[in-house]
Design a protein that fits this description.
Blueprint lengths: L1 H6 L2 H138 L1 H17 L1
Length: 166
């Protein structure tokens, strides 16, 4: 440190001080304003970028909220459509059941009517056959009765006796 004090030159010091002051004046006159302006421009650019990022963040939040809202609406619409589809399916099943029930009732009624008509036809035919058999039997009995002359006379007399009684 002593060597520095021994080597100190006031003229050199004054000249360096003068150069420093001129350099500061030139910097203040020509460079300071552009540097400050560039720093201010950069600061504004950074602030604008931050504001733009904040706006983008808000826009993203709004878009997410809109997406959530649309998603909820889509889910609600899907649920409504599924509910309507289930109701339609149940209605179709019920209609088909009712139609099948009505059709089966018609078929049963038609079968019962058919059975009843066939039963009546069978009874009528049976009566007809019984009548024919009765007539055949009566005819054979009458022939047997009328084949003998004595029996014929007795039959005629008994019929005449009955005719006078009535």
């Amino acid at each position: 440190m002593e060597q520095l004090i021994n080597d100190f030159s006031p003229g050199l010091f004054a000249m360096q001080l003068l150069i420093l002051l001129i350099l500061l004046f030139l910097l203040a006159k020509f460079a300071w304003k552009p540097i400050i302006s560039a720093l201010n421009d950069r600061e504004e650019g950074i602030q604008n970028a931050l504001d733009a990022a904040e706006d983008a963040k808000k826009e993203m939040q709004n878009l997410q909220a809109d997406n959530e809202k649309l998603l909820k609406e889509a889910r609600a619409e899907r649920e409504t459509m599924l509910k309507e589809a289930r109701e339609m399916k149940n209605k179709m099943i019920e209609d088909a059941k009712e139609e099948a029930k009505a059709e089966s009732t018609k078929l049963v009624a038609a079968a019962q009517a058919s059975i009843e008509s066939e039963k009546k036809a069978a009874i009528a035919e049976l009566k007809s056959q019984v009548a024919n058999l009765s007539i055949d039997i009566a005819e054979k009995v009458v022939r047997e009765e009328l084949s003998n002359k004595d029996k014929q006379v007795k039959l005629v007399e008994s019929m005449l006796g009955e005719a006078t009684l009535n």
